[in-house]
Write a structure and sequence with these properties.
This protein is mostly helical and about 270 residues long. It folds into 3 domains: about 35-135, Alpha Horseshoe (Leucine-rich Repeat Variant); about 135-185; about 200-270, no CATH class. About 70% of the residues lie in helices and about 0% in strands. The protein has helices at about 5-35, 40-50, 55-65, 70-80, 90-100, 105-115, 120-135, 140-145, 150-160, 165-170, 175-180, 185-195, 200-210, 220-230, 235-245, 250-260. The termini are far apart.
């Protein structure tokens, strides 16, 4: 290595060191900024009180995003009050923001909207918020939602039931789950299948009825059925059907069929 090459190497090393140090300092500065507690800016509070619904909407969205407030209770109160706003869009964003809180007053408000919201849209967001909590006490609300004529409400309601943090309750609700698997709307059926996390012979019997159908309007439903079948001990007829799916034209179906066969185990003994 001649002198010019040596100098270039030293210069490159120095440059790398500077870049590294800058990176470290920037990382530290960003960390400090993230940790620094802030108050809600006055301009946001002004927009929150505005007569213009779009400004109120922007304020609620902004308030919902704060994660480092000095007074998080203030944000919670503001979002709570915004659920009474005259404009649907503002109320929906307030519900979405409140889902990050878990005080009794917040949960009671979301429950009330889920039951008696002014329209289906805000009911949907309230049910979605409740589903995230996974609280077994919300089962009755989701059961009520499954009776709705609106398939979107039924869809989020069956998701809510299957997200409940209680295997015991979900086993008690197997008849309800089976009904959702057979819902007139395919999106509801798929939601039920994709969120299943329990195994039962009654559910298995429903699944094999679906898998033995000769025609499917969409591969999406067949994929959901195969996903739900993973982990069951298959009867001879169903295993044969799954083997045939290994040559399906859709690659996702072939992969799921193979997974069902590989993950087969004695989970449910059929009578």
């Amino acid at each position: 290595m001649d002198r010019s090459d040596h100098n270039l190497t030293k210069a490159a090393a120095a440059a790398c060191t500077i870049v590294l140090l800058i990176g470290i300092n920037c990382s530290k500065e960003l960390a400090v900024r993230r940790d620094k507690k802030i108050t809600i800016p006055e301009n946001i509070l002004k927009d929150y009180r505005s007569r213009n619904w779009e400004r109120r909407l922007n304020a609620v969205i902004t308030i919902s995003k704060y994660t480092n407030l000095k007074d998080p209770l203030k944000a919670e109160i503001l979002l709570y009050k915004a659920t009474y706003d005259d404009h649907t869009a503002v109320r929906i964003e307030a519900i979405k923001g409140l889902s990050e809180y878990s005080s009794k007053i917040v949960i009671d408000r979301i429950k009330k909207i889920a039951k008696k919201g002014k329209n289906a849209n805000e009911k949907w967001y309230a049910l979605n918020a409740l589903a995230r909590y996974g609280d077994p006490d919300f089962a009755e609300i989701f059961l009520s939602g499954l009776k709705s004529k609106d398939w979107l409400i039924r869809e989020i309601s069956i998701k809510g039931i299957l997200m409940i943090d209680s295997i015991k309750i979900k086993y008690k609700l197997i008849p309800v789950i089976i009904k959702a698997i057979n819902d007139p709307n395919e999106s509801v059926r798929i939601a039920a299948l994709n969120n299943l996390d329990i195994k039962d012979k009654a559910i298995y019997k429903e699944l094999i009825k679906k898998i033995k159908k000769k025609n499917y309007s969409k591969n999406t439903f067949l994929r959901a059925v195969l996903k739900a079948l993973s982990g069951y001990k298959l009867d001879k007829s169903t295993r044969s059907k799954i083997i045939n799916l290994l040559t399906h034209r859709n690659p996702a179906i072939r992969i799921l069929a193979l997974r069902v066969l590989k993950e087969e185990k004695v989970t449910i003994e059929l009578r």
